[in-house]
Structure formats: C-alpha cells, structure tokens
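Lab notebook: predicted structure, single chain.

Context: the supervisor wants predicted structures on file for every construct in the current expression panel, including those that have not yet been purified. This is the next one on the list. No modifications to the sequence; it matches the entry in the shared construct table.
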Amino acid sequence: MNKYKIEIKWALIFAAMMLLWMLLEKALGLHSEHIDKHANYTNFVAIPAIALYVFALLDKRKNYFNGTMSYKNGVITGLIITLIVTILSPVTQYITSTLITPEYFPNVINYVVETGKMTHAEASDYFNLQSYIIQGLIGAPVMGIITTVIVSFFVKKVHSN
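Prediction complete. Output recorded below exactly as produced.
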C-alpha cells in the first residue's frame, strides 16, 4: 500500500477538486439561472484536472523515483490514479447530485425540453444520477488514460550519465 501512497493521495485530491468544481459551477449559477451556459464552461475543468496529473507525476518522480522517471513508470502511475478516480467517481457523482446541486437534473431537463433539444422522456433518461454515474465510469478512464499518456511524455526524466 505504501508503494501507491502518492497515487492514492492524488486521486483523493482529484476527487476533492471535482467536488469543489461542482460547488463553483453551482455558485456561478451554471446549474440554475445560467444553465444555458453550462455546456460552454463545464469543460474548463480539464485545466485543473490536467494540472493535477502533472503535479501527481512530478510528485511521484521526485519522491518515489528519486528525480528520474521513465515514460512507462509515468504511465503506470497515471493509470493507477485513473483507476482510483474511476472507482471514486460514483461517490463523487452521488455527493454532487444529492448534496451539492440536487436541483441540477430538474433544471437541465426543463432547459433542454424548453429549448426543444430533447423531449421530456429523452431528457429524463439522460439527465439522472444513474446515467451520470455510468457516464463517469466511462469518461473517467477514457480521459484519465488520454491525460496519462500525454502528461507522462512531458514529465518523464531519464537519468543522464
């Protein structure tokens, strides 16, 4: 377990960041009065998400691999973080949907129905806790893997002779 202490730490930080991001979106009205702008702004979460992967891999490189880290070791580290984040995603989604912003699903359903983007049945099938948990269980590993392979390339540092 000690071998993965850094990955666990950063996965927990990532989950906390996602919850804070949801609080920010709610505070900015992106789940209510400005729900029409939500789709435009929610993807900016990629900036802190990628930054956290960079910090995590740099932490692992410095504090576990003594300043050097191969691309392979970076990928393994990132994949472990991604696995833990994926496992935590149903919990973070539940907290988001029930504690942080329980009004989001009714608001977004009303918005897409009123704007003619979906029928009420389609919107209700898509915008609900179960659907979002499934989306998180798919999206977290996909985005985590992509982020990992890219960040690992830039964070690797081979020992020079």
